[in-house]
Specification:
Blueprint lengths: L24 H14 L1 H4 L9 H31 L4 H20 L2 H8 L4 H8 L7 H8 L8 H9 L1 H4 L1 H13 L5 E2 L5 E2 L3 H6 L7 H17 L1 H21 L5 H6 L6 H30 L4 E2 L17 H11 L5 H12 L3 E2 L11 E4 L5 E4 L6 H23 L14 H16 L4 H37 L6 H16 L3 E2 L20 H21 L1 H13 L5 H8 L7 H20 L1
Helix pairs in contact: 1-3, 3-4, 4-8, 10-13, 15-20, 15-25, 16-17, 16-18, 16-19, 17-18, 18-19, 18-20, 19-20, 19-22, 20-21, 20-22, 20-25, 22-23, 22-25, 23-24
Length: about 600
């Protein structure tokens, strides 16, 4: 039986090179201490922002520079801990970086308070007097829109100083999952014991063609989760309570309104994604589940079978290097500037694809202005992994272009848009694979891979979003959030979506414990919003060719200088209406219908 490796045992070439941020840990320590000393470069403007446009400009420039340096210090510590959360030194340095962030946020909280306290029209006048303030105009206007929800300067400073404490639920969840939780072995179809971990289950066994392994590993995996259910429920409940209390203190009608405010979208748009997609996609996905049950000859289809491969004898493995070449070719349509970013990511160790104990599960991209992007993934030699990697490269390409063409203050777009560039790359990869072969068996295999993208974003993350919506509604009505309640809610959501033909057992109801997204504001539903937009843009690229590609690249370069709706409109999609959502659900249905015909 193979074992799960420690970080020290994996090949260094499979890990990221963090020396591009700081060459040594000593250099990082030196910069951390230097940033502490240089907080005064911003705080010297405290109480002076009413003195005029030049004073405000100087303060905002100093703040932007300080934020950039804090980002570097924080990223270095965060990435080290993401690669190995068991390492005590990584834990200590991550805590130091969080302490620095809290201190900086508290020290410079006066900026928002003083700007909001200025008489109406002052900011507009400042911008007229000092043209260099125009680069900050958008962020200033968004800040002024929160004026009625701003607390006193003293209260805002206290809240900022407590930021590390108030974000503890997420860290407790991650530390427990990555550093403390261990799993017994599971048996495969040959009766052999195989090792089990979060990443092995999520990245490998969940898609295994071996039904015994797939079901046994899910059962063993869930048995371990069950032991932590009350602790995780209390942790998540604390996060929800924190948000509800803050929304009430700030005078929002609901916690949902508060969390949607920075996304710059309406409650109607939020509900449209959740309501329309669940209603119109569910019949298609039930047909997909029925197809799997028939083709695989299963006695029943359980929650553990939903990601089983339809054609297990035709499931080509793919190495990390092969996936890199495939992704580079698939994304060449986006031109040389984008292509250079993609090439550098694979060539210069921006990607950590090792699989080791203590490594964060899932995948993410962290883009560091002034350095480059870093991507985390655990590689399992699967095509699903190649799609996930293309997804994260999408974040890298987007945010690096945004950083190149925008100031730091305007580089990051709304959360509502952030998943459109990433999911676009998955669609481009699928199109590339489909265009490379006329073989019917290859076509149905690629369609299955593409449906994996839609499953992940339109089912997994969408139903996470539905659970969030119900949890927040209960919390606003002072209903306690317990493990039993979360399991009940998740079970009902899954049963409602999948219908009677998919067995939703007690283990499936624990799915709420598997994802960290519940601690990331209203993030889960934005995956569906992003994929809805990218589905529409991908179709425009097929129809128009280069003009649509050029518009898309302009959108990527715009970063956060526009609202999410403006960005999507520039790309050719109107997300204020339900039409793109319905079209995306119908497109998934057409893929499933074709798959049914091919079997």
């Amino acid at each position: 039986m193979s074992k799960i490796l420690s970080r020290a045992e994996v090949d260094i070439e499979t890990t990221w090179n963090l020396n591009d941020i700081f060459e040594t840990i000593e250099a990082w320590e030196q910069e951390l201490n230097s940033v502490l000393q240089d907080i005064s470069t911003v705080t010297k403007y405290e109480g002076r922002l009413s003195e005029g446009a030049d004073m405000l400009l100087a303060c905002l420039n100093a703040q932007e520079e300080l934020h950039g340096r804090v980002n570097h210090v924080s990223a270095y510590a965060y990435l080290h801990q993401s690669g190995d959360s068991i390492n005590p030194e990584n834990q200590i340095n991550a805590a130091k970086a969080r302490d620095l962030t809290s201190l900086v946020n508290s020290s410079i909280s006066f900026i928002k308070s003083e700007i909001i306290a200025l008489p109406d029209g002052t900011i507009e006048q400042y911008i007229k007097e000092q043209p260099e303030l125009q680069v900050f105009e958008r962020s200033l206007k968004l800040l002024l829109e929160t004026k009625s929800h701003q607390l006193s300067a003293e209260t805002e400073k206290v809240l900022a100083s407590f930021s590390e404490v108030l974000s503890a639920p997420y860290r407790i969840y991650e530390r427990s999952k990555l550093a403390d939780m261990t799993f017994p072995t599971a048996k495969n179809g040959q009766g052999e014991d195989v090792p089990l971990s979060f990443s092995l289950y999520e990245n490998k066994y969940i898609e295994s063609p071996d039904t015994e392994l797939r079901r046994n590993s899910f059962k063993t995996f869930s048995d371990t989760l069950y032991k932590y259910r009350n602790t995780y429920a209390e942790t998540y409940s604390t996060e929800v309570k924190r948000q509800v209390i803050e929304s009430r203190l700030r005078g929002y009608d609901s916690v949902t309104d508060m969390l949607l405010k920075p996304q710059q979208v309406t409650t109607e748009m939020y509900n449209n994604i959740l309501d329309i997609m669940q209603e119109e996609l569910a019949p298609h996905m039930r047909k997909y589940a029925a197809l799997k049950k028939r083709v695989l000859g299963l006695d029943e289809i359980t929650f553990a079978d939903l990601k089983a491969p339809l054609d297990p004898d035709f499931s080509p493995g793919i190495s990390f290097q092969e996936a890199g070449d495939l992704i580079k070719n698939a994304l060449s349509i986006l031109g040389p500037e984008y292509g250079e970013i993609v090439s550098d990511a694979f060539k210069n160790r921006w990607i950590d694809y090792a699989d080791n104990a203590g490594k964060r599960t899932g995948a993410f991209c962290l883009s560091i202005p002034g350095v480059h992007s870093y991507i985390l993934i655990s590689w399992a030699d699967s095509m699903r992994g190649a799609f996930t990697l293309a997804h994260e490269v999408g974040h890298a390409g987007h945010l690096m272009l945004a950083s190149k063409y925008q100031r730091l203050t305007n580089s990051r777009p709304s959360l509502y848009f952030i998943e459109a560039p990433s999911t676009m790359n998955e669609l481009l990869l699928a199109d590339h694979l489909l265009s490379s072969s006329n073989d019917p068996r290859m076509r149905r295999w690629v369609i299955s891979q593409l449906l994996g993208t839609y499953y992940h974003n339109f089912v997994t993350h969408l139903l996470e979003g539905e659970l969030q919506r119900q949890v927040y509604d209960l919390a606003m009505n002072n209903v306690p959030i317990s493990a039993a309640k979360l399991c009940e809610l998740k079970g009902n959501i899954l049963s409602s979506f999948w219908g009677e033909d998919v067995v939703i057992d007690e283990d499936a109801k624990l799915t709420w414990m598997r994802q960290p997204h519940y601690y990331m504001s209203l993030y889960p539903y934005t995956y569906a919003a992003g994929l809805t937009a990218s589905t529409a843009v991908a179709q425009l690229i097929k129809e128009e060719g280069q003009p649509a590609v050029d518009r898309w690249l302009e959108v990527l370069k715009a970063g956060g200088s526009m609202s999410p709706l403006e960005l999507m409109k520039l790309a050719g999609v109107d997300m204020t209406k339900p039409d793109p959502i319905r079209s995306a659900a119908a497109y998934v249905g057409s893929l499933i219908d074709e798959l049914v015909s091919l079997y």
